[in-house]
Amino acid sequence: MAKHASLVGRPETIHNQSTLGALLVRRELAAKAMFLLPNGFLLENEPLAWHFDKPLVVIEHGKMPLPVASDPMAKQSEAVFHVLQKDLAGRSKHGQLREAKTSGHYIQRDQPELVTQSIRDVIRESAALDTAKLRR
Predict the structure, then answer these.
(1) How many structural domains compose the chain?
(2) Is residue 55 within 8 Å of residue 121, measured between CB atoms?
(3) Which of 31, 95, 120, 126 is a plausible cystine mate for 36, CB 3.0–4.6 Å?
(4) What pTM, to 2 d.p., does this model score?
(5) Strand runs (DSSP E) across the chain, as ranges?
(6) CA pair distance 61, 104, nearest whole angstrom
(7) Cα distances (angstroms) measured from residue 84 to each of 7, 117, 124
(8) Which residues does residue 60 pair with via DSSP β-bridges, in sequence order?
(9) 98 pLDDT exceeds 70?
(10) Which residues lie closer than 8 Å to 77 by C-beta, 6 or more apart?
(11) Bridge partners of residue 5, in order along the sequence
């Protein structure tokens, strides 16, 4: 029997809420590309090869909550999440990884201006790309 690696954890296990939506989109796109088994798991060592050409902003928190900051497992998880978020941002040639330097888990509460600006940037960049396509 093949071993499997989970692509998307349950929402309560994801440390950064801004990542949840992106991971769910990632799972859906991967499933469409036939990378996932019916149970939602990725075959072990199966690369995710999807890319897209739309603007994308991935926001990661900059500080760990104090209760978990000294936990070695939490530090390892943070390193893994950073790699995954960097990978996600790199899936678009217009992707960006932004750090919410003063935010913990709730970026939308701690730095709403960063979230709002990121949404505005995606809308503006999408409109610019659409305009450029129309000119061709």
Answers:
(1) 1
(2) yes
(3) 31
(4) 0.64
(5) 4-6, 41-43, 56-61, 95-100
(6) 5
(7) 10, 22, 25
(8) 99
(9) yes
(10) 15
(11) 42
